[in-house]
């Protein structure tokens, strides 16, 4: 009985200690952490703006991208009309090192409609991310799709180009979103949080799902003691992911 009582004391003390280590954030802090900082994921190119394709051999090709062929959401060929020769050229994805294209107006309109369809977006996302006139950056990466398939090369859209020097985050074209609810066709309340990305740190790139965030927290952020103290694992959640990557990058470079 004494042993059981002692074990209970240890368990209670450990739980209390865990609770005491948890950071309580203000409403202002939470609002800041919930702000979505990644770029939107786009899949349809604008045929009216000049795209740039950089091949592995170092050559650069510019032209109007009229088609990006995909299989299971991943790019396998890009067709452009060369800006100088005006001739159509097609490149296989595995030939390409990097690619810059502009999103089509049709897709931007669809993104705006989706943005307007969820009230949560008004407080956490910038509409300008959906109507961007900036180039979309794709990079050739060797990755296992959903951490299940054999490693292959894919052109993947970098969605944190402004703060990707430590952790690079790539768009998952098959990512699902957390659910919300609406009443009689009104804008959705809640939900809308993207559940997965492809994430690269150092030489490791993986598919990171919302459910696996806690298990991978130490790999992503554990080498920065100051960050871990300010944003411990037990105090943050997946909804803050883009903020955490941005903040970790700034603190690591600071």
Q: Tell me the overall shape.
A: globular
Give the N-terminus to C-terminus distance in angstroms.
53 Å
Number of helices: 7
Major pleated sheet = 7 strands, antiparallel
**What are the secondary-structure elements, in order, as H or E?**
HHEEEEEHHEEEEEHHH
How much is the average pLDDT?
A: 89
Give the strand order, joined by hyphens, for the main sheet.
Answer: 4-3-2-1-5-6-7
Strand percentage lies at 25-35%
Low-confidence segments, ≥5 residues, pLDDT <50? 12-20
The helical percent reads: 25-40%
Content-based structural category: alpha+beta
Rg value: 22 Å
Counted up, domains total 2
How many strands?
10
What does the model show?
- This protein has a seven-stranded antiparallel beta sheet with strand order 4-3-2-1-5-6-7, with no helix packed on it. A three-stranded antiparallel beta sheet has the order 8-9-10, covered by helices on one side.
- It is α+β, with helices and mostly antiparallel strands.
- The protein contains seven helices and ten strands.
- The chain has helices at residues 2-21, 27-34, 105-116, 121-124, 213-221, 225-230, 241-253, and strands spanning 50-55, 60-71, 74-82, 88-92, 96-101, 136-143, 152-157, 167-170, 196-201, 204-209.
- The chain is 28% helix and 27% strand.
- The chain has two domains: 23-38 and 159-177 and 191-253, no CATH class; 43-120 and 130-137, SH3 type barrels.
- The model is unreliable at 12-20 (pLDDT under 50).
- The longest helix is centred in the N-terminal third of the chain and has 20 residues, at 2-21.
